[in-house]
Amino acid sequence: MKIFFFIPSLEKGGIERSLSRISRKLIGLGWDVTLLTNELSLEGKSYFENSIKIIRVETPFENKKSLFFQLLNNFLLFIKFRRIINNDKPRLVLAAKNFPLAILLKKFSNHNFKLILREAVDPYVAANIQRNYIFERIILYIKKMLYPKSDRIIAISHGVKDSLIDKLAINSKMINVIYNPAADEKIIDLSQEITDDYSFNDYTIVNIGRLTKQKDHLTLLKAFKLVIKKAKCNLLIIGEGSEKENIENYIRNNELENYVKLLGYKSNPWKYLSRSNLFVLSSIWEGFGNVIVESMFLGIPVISTSCKSGPSEILANGKYGKLFDIRDYNKLSELILNEIASKDLENSSNIAKKRSEDFTIDKITDSYIKSFEELLA
């Protein structure tokens, strides 16, 4: 079976990591998998096995950020991607980014293929938080018009599916919920690598993710400030992003430099995660929450916001980890202190690890294959 993974900008992120795991399994089962891209980072490429075929289409405007050049770039991409699809004739195209371009390719290519959109975020919440009101309305209107023109939508959580139905009026029969394959056996080996830039001498709380407003590190820092008044512990933050300066300012202004360490981006965050005592996710919203599953898979307790979609589903509304309302740093501080004092860590970790096995590459890829086969039947 020939399938194209359509990812015009291949970056270092959860989308790329999840699709690399699915492609690895598909290739192992004999599928012909090709990755179609434009902007290609070395880190993003490193997620994928050497056995996957990567076609990179270059344009002279791919690094230009103005609206005019972005439109021109997409026009050139349409022409080049269309030629490749017409020549290679994939039966399936799984689009993870730039859905409008993917839908135009389906409509105007000579070759008939089935198009699957993989929606990784709640489209309404993402638009509502990241855009001004007018731009938000435009984005949602475009999505509402374009999404039904695909053949299938894969939502990575029930929360994402509910938003697609409620806010974009997508027919529920078009949507399959398939979680991310975050329980990857490879991270167990990677978690054993030595950490040479941090010593885990005291109780360590870890947070892994982009330093953006979405991840709301300030709520975590406010809670941590309360925690260190009553318990001896450190906070490790792994990631990079636009909020780094604000986070550094808060740490400095509140005299937390001796307790909080920013490590920046790490290609192997699991060696830090596996040696930590607690993982905390403070996001305002998520599509899924890969690192929650990865923490559970490595036996690390989890505290997370009960943000819209993702975390509460993974943790079964608190059965496999603790939940708190977004921005409630007082409650978060209480949960952290309770976790530090807990005497039942081994049992709760084993239960959570068992839950993480619902998100293995084999199980998730089987769900993708079933969805593909139903579409082609």
Largest sheet, strands/sense/barrel: 7 strands, parallel
Radius of gyration (CA) equals 21 Å
Counted by DSSP, the helix tally is 16
Poorly predicted tracts of residues: none
Q: Average pLDDT, to the nearest integer?
A: 92
Extended strand count: 15
- Kindly estimate the percentage of residues that lie in beta strands according to DSSP: 15-25%
Q: CATH-wise, what's the superfamily of the largest domain?
A: Glycogen Phosphorylase B
Order of strands across the main sheet: 5-3-1-6-7-8-9
What is the percent of helical residues?
A: 40-55%
What's the number of structural domains? 2
CATH architectural grouping of the largest domain: 3-Layer(aba) Sandwich
Distance, first to last CA: 13 Å
How would you describe this structure to a colleague?
- The chain is of the alpha/beta class and 377 residues long.
- It has 2 domains: 2-181 and 360-376, Rossmann fold (3-Layer(aba) Sandwich); 186-358, Rossmann fold, CATH 3.40.50.
- The chain is built from 16 helices and 15 strands.
- The protein has helices spanning 14-28, 42-46, 67-88, 99-108, 123-130, 133-146, 158-168, 186-190, 217-227, 244-253, 270-273, 290-297, 311-314, 329-341, 345-356, 361-376, and strands at 2-6, 9-10, 32-37, 39-40, 53-56, 92-95, 114-119, 152-155, 175-177, 203-208, 233-238, 260-264, 278-281, 302-305, 322-324.
- The strands form 3 sheets. A 7-stranded parallel beta sheet has the order 5-3-1-6-7-8-9, sandwiched between helices. A 6-stranded parallel beta sheet has the order 12-11-10-13-14-15, sandwiched between helices. The protein has a two-stranded parallel sheet with strand order 2-4.
- α1 (14-28) crosses α16, α3 (67-88) crosses α4 and α9 (217-227) packs across α14.
